[in-house]
């Protein structure tokens, strides 16, 4: 089955040469210590290492990161959450920054989804920790049939999602390419 969804760089005729996968996802948080506690104590991730601070008196911050030249990245922290890609969180001081997280419908809107083997147990865990759950778990239909999901919010308002499809998704029966999943 693995040969259906793993392609070597030689087999790809388009896209990035040597593409091997998603290495990490990064996002900015308002309070690095509070976010670290949330991801470690509530979600169950492991803090791997930290870097920073980063600042420049020139234009390095704008040229390399696309932020205000006087922005200061106080620190960044890398995390691992069981299987899947790594992620990093940043805390910035910056002129002209927006402090409200984007909604999914906003340009640049995003969310981070965590695969769990028991969605109901994971939702109960989040509720015990006072996490705001958006609605109730939803059963997908169409190609995603077999999946259940629910969105929730971090204490600072960022959208996250829990996803579970222990029996797989319907699309996989006929698709020549499979999405990554923890059990693969």
TrEMBL record:
GO terms for biological process: L-methylmalonyl-CoA metabolic process. Keywords: Metal-binding. It comes from the Bacteria. The keyword Metal-binding applies. This is VOC family protein. Coiled coil: none annotated. GO terms for molecular function: metal ion binding; methylmalonyl-CoA epimerase activity. Residues 21-165 form the VOC domain.
């Amino acid at each position: 089955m693995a040969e259906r969804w793993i392609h070597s760089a030689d087999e790809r005729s388009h896209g990035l040469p040597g593409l091997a996968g998603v290495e990490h996802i990064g996002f900015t948080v308002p309070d690095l210590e509070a976010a670290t506690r949330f991801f470690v104590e509530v979600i169950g991730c492991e803090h791997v290492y930290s870097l920073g601070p980063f600042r420049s008196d020139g234009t390095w911050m704008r040229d390399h990161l696309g932020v205000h030249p006087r922005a200061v990245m106080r620190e960044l922290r890398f995390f691992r959450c069981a299987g899947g890609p790594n992620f990093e969180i940043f805390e910035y001081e910056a002129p002209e920054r927006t402090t409200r997280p984007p909604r999914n419908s906003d340009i640049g809107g995003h969310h981070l989804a965590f695969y769990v083997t028991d969605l109901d147990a994971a939702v109960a865990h989040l509720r015990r920790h006072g996490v705001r759950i958006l609605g109730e778990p939803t059963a997908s239909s169409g190609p995603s049939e077999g999946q259940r999901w629910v969105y929730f919010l971090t204490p600072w308002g960022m959208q996250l999602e829990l996803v579970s499809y222990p029996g797989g998704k319907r699309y996989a029966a006929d698709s020549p390419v499979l999405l990554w999943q923890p059990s693969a």
